Amino acid sequence: MNTLLRIAIQKSGRLQEGSLELLKESGLSISNGKDQLKTQARNFPVEVLFLRDDDIPQYVEDQVADIGIVGENVFAEKKKDNRLIKRLDFSKCRLSMAVPRGENYTGVQWLQGKNIATSYPNIVKGFLAKHNVEAGIHEISGSVEIAPGIGLADAICDIVSTGSTLLSNGLQEVEIVMQSEAVIIASPTLSPEKQKILDKLLFRIEAVKKAKNSKYILLNCPNESIEKITQVIPGMKSPTIIPLTRAGWSSLHSVVDENDFWERIDQLREFGAEGILVVPIEKMIV
Ligand SMILES: Nc1ncnc2c1ncn2[C@@H]1O[C@H](COP(=O)(O)OP(=O)(O)OP(=O)(O)O)[C@@H](O)[C@H]1O
Ligand SMILES: O=P(O)(O)OC[C@H]1O[C@H](OP(=O)(O)OP(=O)(O)O)[C@H](O)[C@@H]1O
Ligand SMILES: [Mg+2]
Question: Reduced to 3 states, what is the DSSP secondary structure of residue 125?
């Protein structure tokens, strides 16, 4: 029988779309019917399991799944026998402490002797121990932000992204406990056949991730600026230079990092670049 790598992803929720999109952009042809909990890629030796995200670390530890995509917060909370093998740049959020607005929060010591509602008791325990604070932990599985308002707790520790849930529940964020994003976790041991499939998949994922963080850039510039512009956008090896029919001018093609994109554009314009075109890159193999 042919070996299949089993990948567990969230059935529905905040991670589902990003996880499926990543696998599809990596060239895997996957059909996901509404109530389908298991499917095999048509063109790659992979089987996808659709599960509750909280259960994924256990499935990976038990080797029911070989790898899984979860939030780093869930990986840290569950403390299962999993390896974190790749950060994926989506579902970015933070796990934060929040207290009712209007409370005079003076620092972590404020939490001493208080009650904290959270779905992440292990992470909160670790945070409190690190700061030598003793507090009660009230574990609830959802709608955590409601807890102070109904007298269930003095503070909460939950996921924050835009902060709008905190705002609409009259809470203020006071401590960032951890930053999180979607990650790939793997069981500690994989057979050589499965490891080979995983390596192939990780290579593709890296190409997709790099492409998302980069843009292809084309511009026209006077020949005397080529050297300076090359220093600003060196590209993968070096830019491509194509002479224009207009004497003394060239077209320069390169790759630019999404993160410092606007800064680079300003520098390029200073050096006389004109007709700048910026286009997305679909895959990038270095
Ligand atoms: N507002 C947000 N912005 C960005 N990422 C988020 C946000 N909320 C949650 N996440 C990330 O997505 C993960 C899944 O969140 P979701 O709310 O879908 O979980 P859930 O309700 O526990 O789902 P399930 O039904 O699978 O148990 C979280 O563990 C976190 O890493
Ligand atoms: O800072 P914000 O942008 O408001 O996001 C934070 C909220 O997002 C998540 O809940 P979600 O909306 O996924 O609903 P859930 O309670 O069903 O998990 C999380 O549990 C927070 O409540
Ligand atoms: Mg869950």
Answer: helix
**Which structural domain, as residue segments, surrounds residue 99?**
93-180
Output the CA 261–ligand 3 centroid distance in Å: 36
Ligand 3 centroid to residue 61 C-alpha, Å: 17
Output the domain CATH number for residue 135.
3.40.190.10
In the predicted model, what is the mean pLDDT of the chain? 96
Is any ligand 2 atom within 6 A of the Cβ of residue 142?
yes
* Cα 159 to ligand 2 centre (Å): 7
pLDDT digits (tens, 9 = 90+) for 122-153: 999 999 999 999 999 999 999 999 999 999 99
Taking Cα atoms as reference points, which of 286, 211, 196, 204 lies closest to residue 28? 204
Per the structure block, which two tokens stand in for 192? 């050589």
- ipTM value for the complex: 0.95
The CATH number that applies at residue 232 is 3.30.70.120
Which bound ligand lies closest to the C-alpha atom of 16? 1
* Ligand sitting nearest the alpha carbon of 143: 2
Return the structure tokens found at 66.
């070989």
As a dihedral over the C-alpha atoms of residue 60, residue 66, residue 69, residue 72, rounded to 10 degrees, the angle is 50
Ligand 1 atom closest to Cα of residue 182: 31
State the Cα–Cα distance between residues 200 and 196, nearest whole angstrom: 6
> Could you identify the atom of ligand 1 that is nearest to the CA of residue 54?
27
